[in-house]
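User: I need a structural model of Cytoplasmic protein from Umboniibacter marinipuniceus for a docking pre-check later this week. Nothing fancy, just the predicted structure tokens so I can convert them on my end. Input:
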Amino acid sequence: MFDTSGLIKIANTRMPFGKYQGRVLIDLPEAYLQWFSREGFPNGELGELLALALLVNTESLKHLVEPLRRAPR
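Assistant: Understood. Predicted structure tokens for Cytoplasmic protein:
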């Protein structure tokens, strides 16, 4: 069975730093995610989530993540 926890996290986790601080990871521009891919993703869970967000974007699977978003607070 596929673990959806990563998809849920990229649909709801906000970028903690940088030019796009505060933006939900799945909403980061693909070019920004590709930059991380070239330069190196951050260590730990954030890097793993950014890599997953890039994969979802490049494979045109963003529609799978949309239903996993939490309602704005």
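Before docking, keep this in mind: The radius of gyration is 12 Å.
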